[in-house]
Amino acid sequence: MRRLLRLIPPGTLAVGAGLAVLGLASYVHLAVAGHSLTQADYNSLSVLWAIVFTLGIGVFMPVEQEMARVVAARRSEGLPPGPVLARGAAIAAGMFAVMAVVLLAAYRVLADKLFAGDGRMIWVLLGALAAMAIAYPTRGVLSGLQLFPWYGSQLGIDGGLRIAMVAGLGLAGVTSPLWYGAVLVLAPLVGVLLTLPPVLRAIGGGTPVAWTALLRGLGLLTASSLLSQVVVNVGVINVKLLDPSDVATAGALLSALVLVRIPLFVFASLQASLLPGLATSAATGDLRGFHSLLRRALGIVTALGVLGALGAVALGPWLVGILFDASDVLGYGDFAWLSVSTLAYLWAMVLGQALLALDRHRSQAFGWTIGVAALVAVTLTPVSVALRVELAYAVGSVAVAATMALLLRNHSRTAPTPTRPLDDAVATGVPGGTR
């Protein structure tokens, strides 16, 4: 345990506190919305939520990670982060522009299929994605400069505002899903605004950064990140697509997923020390230390997953009704499948970090590709909709973990020797994927 604590970089506690507030905000947000909205409106909000975090985290978190890597490398040479911010912001803006064009081109189809014809939800979706396109590049600068208290403050402000805003909406008796969706637009933007001073003070000038410095690993990271979010979030969207008339299951499934994925929030704080520790062992050829830390991490997430599963299966059907006012459509068996899926997903996350530490970005992306393919195959089977999406989540997560375990076994039989410098590998270990 002492060795693990030594691997934790400075500021991890501050980031963990911000993550805790942001995680709590997700529960409060959905709980207030669940008690304030009709089943149909909560269904629309659930689909919006799933799309925002599938696309937003999947696309913009890799931008944050690559910016953090380059900013950290420049910081070690005494160079300012301004040119990195300019390039990173341009990349994020370009990605958002592509998504906006696609969403607007399919405006009417998406509104009819996903939001019961309410096109205004598409504009809320675009606003939430734009906010994430702004927030993640600034977090990349903060983490690359090791301004972790400010990083954690941005997460905490975002989460705190979500709690305050949805509480106000609930007390005011607001019953429109648009306003509950708009919280995902306003809160992160205010968080960026209030934590912008240290970014502006540090920008500086200097020669422009080559596009290749950020783009060389971004494609594979984005593929892995986006596919991982598809595995964990697409079930809610699939319920809506497979059975549009079922206005209860999508909302109940999102509420259940929020409960069973509590261990994922804990892992997000552990991730800050896991990848740097694995990368350090890999870069120094410490095969025994690499495997020891990997086994320890797998043991920790297994314990988290099992404990979370016991609580979710025993109390889940009751809690989703009490906390989120969800319909009584999911039973103990549903929570068991979702809990098994989450445990396998945790294994996949840890094994993916190990592959990244070995500079095996293609292997990680391949593992997630196999998982999504398995998920799609199960989704097309002729069983009940709820069971179908639960089995798809489980099979997809297990497929990812199994594929990565096999790839990792082949890659790590000899002393790990990544091709990227140690500073590059360690810098990508900042936490991301928060909600």
From TrEMBL:
Statement: the UniProt record of this protein carries the keyword Transmembrane: yes
Segments of this protein annotated with the region Disordered: 415-435
Q: Which UniProt keywords apply?
A: Cell membrane, Membrane, Transmembrane, Transmembrane helix
State the source organism's domain of life: Bacteria
Q: Does the keyword Membrane apply?
A: yes
Any one Gene Ontology cellular component term annotated for this protein: plasma membrane
Q: Which InterPro entries match?
A: Poly_Biosynth_Transport
Subcellular location per the Swiss-Prot or TrEMBL entry: Cell membrane
Report TM segments.
46-63, 84-109, 121-138, 150-172, 178-196, 208-227, 247-268, 297-324, 336-358, 365-385, 391-408
Give the membrane topology: Multi-pass membrane protein
User: What name does this protein carry?
Assistant: Membrane protein involved in the export of O-antigen and teichoic acid
Q: Which organism is it from?
A: Micromonospora viridifaciens
